[in-house]
Amino acid sequence: MWVLALIFLAAACVFSLGVTLWVICSHFFTVHIPAAVGHPVKLRVLHCILQLLLTWGMIFEKLRICSMPQFFCFMQDLPPLKYDPDVVVTDFRFGTIPVKLYQPKTSTCTLKPGIVYYHGGGGFMGSLKTHHGICSRLCKESDSVVLAVGYRKLPKHKFPVPVRDCLVATIHFLKSLDAYGVDPARVVVCGDSFGGAIAAVVCQKLVDGPDLPRIRAQILIYAVFQALDLQTPSFQQRKNIPLLTWSFICYCVFQNLDFSSSWQEVIMKGAHLPAEVWEKYRKWLGPENIPERFKKWGYRLKPHEPMNEAAYLEVSVVLDAMCSPLIAEDDVVSQLPETCIVSCEYDALRDNSLLYKKRLEDLGVPVTWHHMEDGFHGVLSTIDMSFLHFPCSTRILSALVHFIKGL
């Protein structure tokens, strides 16, 4: 029996080594690390770890042990949390929605700003634990009360469940600001990546909210604002740059919106929407809305191919403003509060931020824009990763703190 056990153990070790070598080799063959990012070795290590977890998740999913998102979430939440002695952290629920409340330990009679934070992660990664460091530092450095929302995710919960959970939690918070010592005139919604999209939608939903304090500002960190056009300049230029490669974007979009992967080529060619829809939204999505300096290389304007009606019938949900807040009506967008947008140069979603920034500015909404020339998608999450920390993450947090203190 022990001989069989040793053989099995040896086979498992060889297989694990093979998986690791495959991930490393595929990384070097398929991924591009720009020199301007800085710390290229760190980014390579970070991306290989991400790909290794995703690969093992896919293997376990094929073996029907668990789904890939379940495996990934289990692994990402293993590291113990580090608590700051100057921040009081409380876990509780708004109904069934788990939240974490961060409050500065120093007690004063002065009401503080309130920040509702929605974590990123493509709808399946990220959690209250992974963003604990960000929320804790945001609380301490901006002297604010931070509420982090643990919305439901893949594989069980798809669009629009995460948005609905965050909207409900935000309304709960707005109705109980007195209990947390929050100034009702200084409530901010904030999110990164997928969470940034949620923040934009929640803000739009609450512009007319009767009997609720008005949202003072929104902070949108390398967020996704539309799912119509996946061939903007940054999608073409940055499709092979970690941590958000083209294949990973497709996985997140198709899983969250419950699309068949067979439509990937059709969507790439722009054949999933009729010509009149492209014409209607060209004023907001067209490449002419993006400054020329972002289109100098690696971009080619591609005409949309004739519509595939079957695809359109299945993917038309992208025209819902809850899915693509960039295309919300003018009477909604014009009422939005002061906005802080953070974009990263080496991010496939860069142009989403540029397009939403222009849309807001055209309608008179004050916008503070921070563009990280050496940034990549997901860089803020490295802020408490010790040797995998990128200086850009600290600059982003400092920009957020400065914006919040200026409200």
Automatic annotation (TrEMBL):
Q: Which Gene3D superfamilies match?
A: alpha/beta hydrolase
Q: Which GO terms describe its molecular function?
A: carboxylic ester hydrolase activity
Write down any Gene Ontology CC term.
Answer: membrane
The Alpha/beta hydrolase fold-3 domain extends over 115-245, 311-380
Matching SUPFAM superfamilies, A to Z? alpha/beta-Hydrolases
Name the residues annotated as catalytic in the UniProt entry.
193, 347, 377
Keywords (A to Z) from UniProt: Hydrolase
Looking up Pfam families in the UniProt record yields: Abhydrolase_3
Q: Does the keyword Metal-binding apply?
A: no
Top-level taxon of the source organism: Eukaryota
Q: Does Disulfide bond appear among the keywords?
A: no
Q: Which family does it belong to?
A: Belongs to the 'GDXG' lipolytic enzyme family.
Q: What is this protein called?
A: Arylacetamide deacetylase like 3
* Source organism of the structure: Gorilla gorilla gorilla (Western lowland gorilla)
